[in-house]
Model the fold of this input.
Amino acid sequence: MSQQAGYSPSFKRPAEIMRMRRKRTRSDASVFSSPSGQGSSCSPGQSDSSPAGVRPFSPGPLFNTQARSGGGVKRRNPFANIENTYSPKKKLLIYNDDGNAEAGHGYKTMKWTGEEECGGVLSFRAKLAEAENQEHQDSSSEKCLTFSEDDSLFEEEKEDVKSPLLKSPQAIAPASIAPPVCTEYPADWSLKTRLLFTSPLTLSWAEHPKAQEEASGLSQHCRAQFGSLPHSLQDPRSCSELRCAFQQSLVYWQHPSVPWISLFPRINAERSFAGKSAPWAQDRALQQSLMSEWSVSLSSLYSLLKAKLCPYFYLCSYQFTVLFRAAGLGGSSSITALISPTTRGLREAMKAEGIEFSLPLVEERRKSREQHSLAVPQGEEDEPEKVQDGSELKEGADYKAGDEGENDEYNNDDDGSFSWLEEMGVQDKIKKPDSISIQLRREGQTVSLDHKPESVVCVEGSHTFTLINFLINCKSLVASAGSQAGLPPTLLAPGAFKGATMHTLKARSVNVKSQVGSTYQNISSLEITGPILPSSLHTITTLLRPAQKGNFSAALYTHAPTAVMNTCSTTQQCTGGSDLSGCGLHPASIEQLRQTSTLSKTALTHINMNNYSYTWKN
Done:
């Protein structure tokens, strides 16, 4: 590379660099030790014998200024050269002869006078400060200089002087950009198995209630009485109303009730049933007695649901879970039932009983594909995905119509399917698949939905009554073998019904220390276990709001098969005129459950309240 003005040609090896450094040190010592106390005409750190135009330190222009007095001297960078500092994307600040600063691309030829070569050199950073002050004083200028990766190179940025946000973000008040307050989280219709609340304030008030407080809470639950609490509580432990209301929120009703066996969850729960005494497993008369009582309880629940005296209830079998909701909840104007997961055999059996139903997720996928096909030009669709999902979409459309006869795939004649072979004249040379192979292929496509979230089935209106009769008479509803053999499904409801047993969720409080940065902070936790219903979750969080002064967080553990219960029906009609005041729930919980769920086939996993404002994850 050719030598350029202003750059030292002598640094090649470390040994030579060290010799030059020692020579400059001796030269500097002789300069500052002069009797007159005046520095020489040359800059500190540079010997008298230095050639003209040599940089005093790291690459940068030589300035025409007076030499500064002794003090801290910045040494030159011995490894700096034009090759490791030049960047075509960066702009160089060059001082003209008149002292003004201008920016340009690349490197320009600089002319230095003898006075500039022998004159003292100011600090490069000091010169930069002067240039920036001059730029700020010029009100018509819209350019500002900022440090780049190298001290000698600068980047030029546009600055909008009219925009205070870009000019000074600190000048914006925090109140003007405060996030909006969210006083409610979306309705979650899934069943929870565990809740874990944490808060910087103590949660010990939620456990070990007094006998009078527990009795008062149970009585208020049975009478559907709800008291009002203040916005903020100074001492939750001394607030008897709060502790009574918390005991009231833990109550749920269940049938059947076997004290030595936990009857929730039922899906994939063989391990919890193993080794437990099951006298009904081999006794047919006992099994019939249990099913008879269970049928009465299920009929009672549906009657209460229809009369809007029960808002919802769950039926949990060893294969699937059913959620029945009263009219006016979930954004629907009629009674709805969601079943998940389902199989082809169950769907076929429901069709045989005349139960009309839909597959909401399949319908949603079909509509999205139709919109996509309208937006994408013909011939550019994703053919493999269409082949893969075609059977699911056809199945959903067929079940919604209640008849498979309209599906050409399942009703084409076997001989007609190969009519194109006759047209080509090769029908005798190609072996046709037999009818059994064709049927197996069709069934394989049909069962592709089984045990998936997309298999959720929605039944609405009067067909829910037919579904109740179907469930009572369905022999496959009860396991015939295994650890759950002969045991009827579990019925769960927020209110009392015929044959039900009152149960309460288990609450346990623990105080722990959590490390926050370099310090430890006291954190109080509250664990609640059991079949946690949607209304119970909402009531508990409503009570924690004033008790914890609007600051707590919760981890929610969902029963996986029920996460898809947040799916919206395809024919729903949002109405607000249904009177549910007699269903036994808190008015705030009713208003939340009225809303159409926005979670689709997911469920809430975390809820956080900060300064009385909710955030959540799903």
Notes: The radius of gyration is 40 Å. The chain has four domains: 14-164, 192-255+501-617, 270-359+456-493, 367-449. The chain has a mean pLDDT of 75. Residues 308 and 580 are 6 Å apart (CA to CA).
